[in-house]
Amino acid sequence: MPETSCYLGFDYGKRSIGIAVGQTLTNTATALTAVAVNHHIPQWHLIDVLIKQWHPAGLVVGWPIDTRGNMQKITHAAQAFGNELSQRYQLPIHYIDERYTTSAARASLLSSSRSRQTTKSQVDAESAKIILEDFLKY
Fold it and tell me: N or C: which end of the chain has fewer CB within 10 A?
């Protein structure tokens, strides 16, 4: 039987970071939550809780690039966030292209919900789920 590894996925944003959990047995993920970012500082204490709860083998951070594949200002911020994750938790960091994940997340939430309203936190967490599932496919 193959060994199953757990990963946490992150959709970095300047005001909010979506978080999902996934595992390698089925290559699926579940949207968990979004944490606020205040003055460029994420709510690390909430991320600490998730790291302790899930014991991930690695962390996956969305790589925000434009439609042509070019880096943006937020790309550098996402990389700095990934570097901080690596230093804090001593876990491998993987980056994955996150183009179109927000629009895919909105569409997924709208199609699976009876309500036509979604919150930014729901969209951020669903985006993290999509990012993580893209990583788990490979």
Answer: N
